[in-house]
């Protein structure tokens, strides 16, 4: 019976190790996804510390992989010291995931203020060239989020690019894809996206932060 119990315990621990490795992969993927997505919107968000939860998530994923390795070795060798280390690191990971959740909610609450503060600056830097980073960022956001201007397409009238171009049009990235031969002219406002980008950028960034929060909550609950 004793030997059977030991074998069952080993099986359970090996199974847990596999879960940790799977969790490590998922957490690293989520952290990387947040980094890549934020890179597309970084011009609208000046506070780089917002990426701290994503950095911690990747670190936790790496730590979980190490935990799985330690646990697997300790199980095979039946090392009480190894299993104690396994449990201690697991507790550390749990605490770290709780910290990620708290930081995630803190920075998620700051998203709207950050975007409100920076979006006007980005639009004022627009010059319509693909070589210019702010211009690429605005065109990308308008195409991806199906929006135009800060609150609506009329905001473009107040930008330096609009005043200098003097062609009474907005960037073609404001054009709805279903409209053929759209030039962005304001004489045909029905061809343009009607919703502004500010609210949609805020919504997108908050959604991204929620991925981190839910990932940390899920794996903390599992542990």
Q: Roughly how much helix do the residues carry, as a percent range?
A: 55-70%
Profile the largest sheet.
none
Number of helices: 6
Strand content: under 5%
Number of strands: 0
Keywords: Glycoprotein, Membrane, Transmembrane, Transmembrane helix
Membrane topology: Multi-pass membrane protein
Organism: Lates japonicus
Subcellular location: Membrane
Please describe what this structure looks like.
The protein is 70% helix and 0% strand. The chain is mainly α and 223 residues long. The radius of gyration is 24 Å and the shape is elongated. InterPro entries: Tetraspanin/Peripherin (IPR018499), Tetraspanin_animals (IPR000301), Tetraspanin_CS (IPR018503), Tetraspanin_EC2_sf (IPR008952). Keywords: Glycoprotein, Membrane, Transmembrane, Transmembrane helix.
Briefly characterize the structure.
This protein has 223 residues and is an all-alpha fold. The protein is 70% helix and 0% strand.
List the helices and strands and how they pair.
Blueprint: H1 2-41, H2 52-77, H3 80-124, H4 133-145, H5 160-165, H6 197-222
Subunit structure: Interacts with claudin-11/CLDN11 and integrins.
Keywords: Glycoprotein, Membrane, Transmembrane, Transmembrane helix
Function: Regulates the proliferation and migration of oligodendrocytes, a process essential for normal myelination and repair.
List descriptors:
single chain, 223 residues, mainly alpha, 0% strand, elongated
